[in-house]
Every structure is written in structure tokens, then in C-alpha cells.
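Example record

One chain of 159 residues, shown exactly as stored in the release files.
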Amino acid sequence: MKIRHILGLLSFGIAISAFATQLSVLSSVVDSEFPADIPGNAPEVVPETQQAPVLVAQRYNLTGTWQDDLGSRCFISQRGSNFAWNCYDSANHYSSPPSYRWNNVFMGSVVGNEITGHWQDIPPGNNVLRGTLTLKIVSQNKIRIIGQTGGYGSRVLTR
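Predicted C-alpha cells for this chain:
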């Protein structure tokens, strides 16, 4: 029984050795046919494909009622990396009918501690502006607007 086992290992070793020899011969043929020191024959280095950033909600739960530095009331909804709000001028919302100077919506994505997306004024507000916003999550209770287009007015949201 031991002899068969030894013979089996020996023949396996011979097969591996033969494969290694064939691989070595193939490698030397490739090297001689396509030497790397000849311009255009160097192997092309292909960088690993970069993966798209993963859009995940980090450690923040931002859903709730917020207020901006202009006195607007903002209702924020966050589901995973999806982020949205409706902010309106709340100065006269108890009048009948309610009177709003502005009312806007924002939809964006949370990546790390930043949120990017698009905003737009909607009725019943009087403004008709729109643009983009970049927000920085300062804490669980504070968001700072660090970039904007379209004339967005406020700079900080707190709850």
C-alpha cells in the first residue's frame, strides 16, 4: 500500500515538473518573440477598474423637522442614501389662507458627510428659482450649505 502511495506521489511530482518545464519554455518563447526592451513590446499595465462610489447612509439619521437660518421650517426625509426636504417660509403659514414667500423642495444623495442634489421653488411660494446645493453634515443636528447655484438663500439648518 505504501509503495502505491509513494508511486502516486512520484508520478504527481513528475507531472508537476513537466508542467513547470512547459510553462518555462512558453515563457521564454514569449520573451524572445516580444522582448520588453523593444518599444511597443512592453506589457501594457492595465489599472484596476475603479468602482463607483457606494451611496450609503452613514451614521446619520436626518429625518425630522428642521429650521434654517432664515426662519424656514424644513421637513427632511432620509432613507438610506436618499435625502429630500420641503422647506417653506413659516412666518405666515397660520393665516387663512396661508401665505408663503417661498416654498422649495430638494432631492439629493448622502455620501459620507456630504449631500448633493437639486432644489426648486414650488407653489404656493412666490419665488420661481432653482439650482443645485452641496451640504455638509456637521452633526446629527446641524447641516451647513457649502455650495449653491440658483440663488438659494439660507446657509445653515438646525433641529
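Notes: The helical segments are 2-33.
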